[in-house]
Amino acid sequence: MNDGDTDRRVVDGRFELESRVGGGGMGTVWRARDLLLHRSVAVKEVRPADPDLAEYDPDSARMLRERVLREGRALARVQHPNVVTIHHIVDGGEGTYPWIVMELVEGGSLADRLARAPMTPAEAARLGRGVLDALRAAHAAGVQHRDVKPANVLLRTDGRPVLTDCGIAAIRDSTALTATGSIIGTADYMAPERVTGGDGGPAADLWSLAMMLYVAVEGHHPLRRGTTLATLAAVLHEDVPPPRQGGALAPLLAAVLVRDPGARPDAETTDRMLAAAEQAGDEPTATSYPLAPARNAVPAPIPTPSDTVVPSLDRQVRVRRAALASVAAGAVLVGGITWVAWPDGNGNKASASTTTGGQHSTPASTPRADTPLPSPATRLATGMLTPDGIRMALKAIEDKTGRDTFGDLAVYPEYVSVKAMVPGSRTRYDSYTYHPGRGVEKGPLNGTLMGTEPVSLKNYRWDLLPALLTLAEQKLNVDKPMSRYLLLQAPSRLSNTPAGMAVYLSDDYATGYVLATPQGKVTNVVPADG
């Protein structure tokens, strides 16, 4: 890239960068001016998420460059009005990353559109047919997209969808090339067969399309969890709950969002079902179709200062911050609120108290300090979501792998998942899952921690988990929880977040959580939406 006398940035002596229009894990997209043909174009600067990749893993950096070049050339062969047109690839040779020059689509992305409001079923079906046409054209050319999601669907000014992002698509039957630690595809929209490392084929792109349409009409993602690892586990093991706003689109979502790719309709059948949904309009439609009953809802991640959430894509969790103080049980406080959970001789208890201006008081919304919360109900802690269950899983993982430091932990009643750190590294990890009766299994995810620090879990007070679950049931406004789980809060050097653990309760639409220190002292209670 050349810098002119007026600080103009020009790529390949031809494409003058004007403004940044988007970006993600694979690079930055710029609006640019083609100085030779006098037209506006989009220029994608392809770079890995980790800027130091070339330094510590040059082989992966080289493979990334080769993959982008190969797949960009393949996608350039796809000529279709619903596929973004690739004009040119700028390759500086070994040690550089390519620039991809594409047509400029002026109407924003589907993610931008959904940030304003969900779509009606007929509107989503119409858009889905356009994206499906693009996928069929790509599949016919031997290209699987692998990352169909709202951010990768652009909209023309007349509303027609255009599929983009050649940095993710892969050529059928080619060797999978990925940068170290990267996932080819976005966890939220990845088909189960691709999570387990399989190629997936065109049916996997159809799953991603259907999941995108589900989000488009519902306004939230049914399997999104608090961490990437937990989301991948949900995609693998949990059923998709029936949409409440699916209308005539519901039969299509029910047919495609099944874990067995062989049971999904083919592209032609999918198109017929989308056409029927589009023609049916937006009249209310019964939703008694064969999707499995909803077992888990949409947990929200523990908020940090760096979090940004698109309101209409994620159901917002109401964050009620309290002034926090860390004290031993029985200490006198001056201002603020502190929740403290501790065991006594009769079992695990939880209690709370407040003080204001040095005077002890008991707000109507909290229990009296001298009246402990009810003893934990045994029914709340089940399966692996118990102190003994967590200890058993962590011991089994340590015995099999020799690893006792973790970058992530997710505990569900059915299983426990971790990011286990590679020996000698503070950033590299492999994923493992423990299921009772099956033992420890290596997962599909490995990579590099970004912004968080690994922790040892040996000093976590798991015995306080039942008390935390009891407190969560009393305070989170989730009357009939359909899922309960625990997530590790890894310490973050970016947001100055300390280590902790969070207990979540969810129903069909809302999620709340109780955040505690590793010693079980509650530092925040975030109720679900009322």
UniProtKB/TrEMBL annotation:
It is an enzyme of class 2 (transferase). Residues 349-365 have a biased composition (Polar residues). GO terms for molecular function: ATP binding; protein serine/threonine kinase activity. The keyword Transferase applies. Keywords: ATP-binding, Kinase, Nucleotide-binding, Serine/threonine-protein kinase, Transferase. The keyword Signal does not apply. It comes from Streptomyces guryensis. Its EC number is 2.7.11.1. This is non-specific serine/threonine protein kinase.
